[in-house]
Amino acid sequence: ILQSLVKSLSREKMVYFLIISFIFLGTMPVLIHYYPSLNYNHDFMLYMFDPIIGYFLAGYFIDKYVEPTKKKTLIAYIVFVLSIVLSVVLTYFEYKKNNSQFLFFDNRSTILIIASSVSFFYLVRFYFKKGFSERLNNIIHYVGGLTFGIYLLSDFFIQKYTFVGEFMYNNGINKMIVLIFFEILVFVTGMLVTLILKKIPGLNKLL
Fold first, then answer.
1. Contacts of 191 (CB under 8 A, 6+ apart)
2. In this predicted model, what pLDDT tens digit does every residue of 181-198 receive, in sequence order?
3. Angle subtended by helix axes 25-34 and 111-126, to nearest 10
4. Is the C or the N end of the chain the one with fewer CB within 10 Å?
5. Contact residues for 73 (Cβ-Cβ < 8 A; gap 6+)
6. Sign of dihedral through CA atoms 57, 27, 86, 176?
7. What whole-number distance in Å separates Cα of residue 127 and Cα of residue 158?
């Protein structure tokens, strides 16, 4: 369904979609987090423009319409590094403010994660893989084909593995290590399950 939707959109409409999805819906939660007075009516929801759908559209847009240049690559590097640094710094301040609720920026729908993800996709798509061996490129391409299934399963496994994170944290393991391990665990499990589901006739076309 998403593939049919994306292919039916013109380049101009894709740009409008990404502006609403990434710039508006990705930025507003951050602004409201720091300035609650900016909060708008909760009845005003734009589910169709959810940033998660925006990721899917952005990948298609970059692959089809973006021509790599040195200037674009430099911008992608800068955006990637800045968004990662800002995420770490702001998370640190969130932790200092409340060490039990500090993962606000660990959210794939906020602008910093969006910026780092899209810029990283551009870099891998056009530049990083040039220095990779053919075997590694094949692995990246294969895993890339599983990521949509991993995304669909991620929330399920996040809930199922909550006890793992709690167990590690309660046994004195650093929160950052717990977080990294937890996200790797969710990704790997989702990948393995997606591999299995892709063997089932009919499901392979959906994943």
1. 143, 146, 149, 150
2. 988 999 999 999 999 988
3. 140
4. N
5. 122, 123, 126, 127
6. negative
7. 32
